From TrEMBL:
Domain (Amidohydrolase): residue spans on this chain: 201-378
Gene3D superfamilies from the UniProt entry: Metal-dependent hydrolases, Urease, subunit C, domain 1
Protein name: Amidohydrolase
PANTHER family, per the entry: CYTOSINE DEAMINASE (PTHR32027)
Top-level taxon in the UniProt lineage: Bacteria
């Protein structure tokens, strides 16, 4: 049950708490009134509702997910919690990824994201043949069905050792372009990575596609593919948006070397998305207590003007056993893991405005004229927001409170718990 029922028609959410920078003001949090009419924020007052300083944030953007892997844990759990355990388990489970299986699990995940207050999602899709011919058409159908509720984008996902300009990836790239997607790849140290990156960017440029990489998802300081990607972008003059995710090895590298790499990333205009929950789960896992968090250098990135976002990553699959595509959980955990508190006052952009800009989703904020796509919490300060799960939050889409009922896990039993 939401903590406050709102009347229909034009309304004024009086006495709400919002991040000051979203109103163009200095400082951290401030109180204000928000007016809503005809699905948008306006400067015209309506029926006044005293919100008792409830916090209001723009609806979330989750720019790095894996909807195709989501919720397979009951039938494909990670045997030891390791990265290699996750990789081998998912590859074995590909045999189950029929159109019906994908549709059920992806739709379930989107229902969760929508109920939690997310308005846009980018998902990676495993694209080792023959899977692309199944997954991409299903994705396009789901994208059309969810139009007006959640804006969707997709990125193909292969390992860099599976890339070749003359191999089957050419057909995959054509399929990605056909479905208006983004070209993606996992980068890790292979002897001819530079040649593969050059070919990858040629293929993306020829098709007018943006690029999105999984990068250095390891604690090995010798993994420096982020540096090579930045150098290649600068060398080629590639102008479409480039996003990199993870970048864990930066946290274990010599500081001077890591910061010099970030200077190159900033110069290349690359977007970064950090996935702290999944990285905390997988990285530095072994027979004892983990020493490393796996989080990348987000503060040093922001200091250089690099756009930084945070996202959910995996959900109840071998790469991450937990999660619910709840961006508030991502905000809470990112704040704790990466010490976003006692820092700058605009980190909330990393969960809405920054990923929207990086992906090309429609912008949204708290200014008159913006869509009234809002999430309202019974919390007056950040500590109150993050101390509780906020199950009674209110989600407004086009100014109307949505049904926030979450789907029952039992709905997936016929496909993820085979007899």
């Amino acid at each position: 049950m939401d903590f406050r029922a709102l009347p229909s028609g034009p309304i004024t959410l009086a006495n709400v708490t919002v991040p000051a920078h979203l109103l163009g003001q200095a400082g951290d949090l401030t109180t204000t009134d928000l007016h809503i009419a005809d699905g948008r924020l306006t400067d015209q007052p309506g029926t006044q509702v005293d919100m008792a300083r409830a916090m209001v944030l723009p609806a979330f953007v989750d720019m790095h997910t894996h909807l195709d892997k989501g919720h397979i844990w009951p039938r494909a759990s990670n045997p030891d919690g390791s990265f290699l355990g996750a990789l081998s388990t998912v590859r074995a489970d590909h045999a189950n990824w029929s159109a019906e299986d994908l549709r059920a699990r992806m739709t379930f995940s989107l229902r969760c994201a929508y109920a939690h207050g997310t308005r846009a999602v980018r998902t990676h899709l495993d694209s080792i043949p023959p899977q692309p011919q199944i997954s991409w058409p299903v994705f396009s159908e789901i994208r059309a069905e969810w139009a007006g509720k959640i804006d969707l984008q997709a990125v193909c996902l292969i390992g860099c050792d599976g890339f070749s300009e003359d191999g089957p990836f050419r057909d995959t790239a054509d399929l990605v372009a056909q479905h208006k997607g983004t070209l993606g790849m996992v980068s890790y140290p292979v002897p001819d990575l530079k040649d593969r990156l050059l070919g990858f960017f040629r293929m993306a440029e020829a098709r007018g596609l943006a690029a999105d990489f999984h990068v250095d998802e390891t604690m090995d300081p010798g993994s420096e593919t982020l540096r090579m990607i930045a150098e290649t972008v600068l060398e080629t003059g590639f102008t479409a948006p480039v996003t990199v995710g993870h970048c864990c090895s930066l946290s274990t590298q010599d500081e001077g070397r890591a910061l010099n790499t970030l200077d190159l990333v900033a110069k290349a205009g690359i977007n970064v998305v950090s996935l702290p929950m999944c990285n905390l789960y997988l990285q530095d896992r072994g027979p004892g207590t983990p020493r490393g968090r796996g989080v990348t250098l987000v503060h040093e990135m922001r200091d250089r003007g690099i756009p930084v976002a945070f996202a959910s990553d995996n959900t109840r699959d071998p790469f991450y056993a937990y999660g619910d595509l709840d961006m508030l959980e991502v905000m809470r955990q990112a704040t704790r893991i990466a010490h976003l508190d006692h820092s700058r006052a605009d980190w909330c952009d990393a969960f809405a405005a920054t990923p929207a800009s990086a992906c090309g989703f429609a912008a949204a904020g708290l200014a008159p004229g913006d869509p009234a796509d809002l999430v309202i919490f019974k919390a007056r300060e950040w500590t109150e927001l993050y101390a509780r799960p906020q199950h009674d939050r209110i989600v407004l889409r086009a100014g109307q409170a949505i049904d926030r009922t979450l789907p029952d896990y039992a709905e997936l039993d016929p496909i993820v718990r085979p007899s």
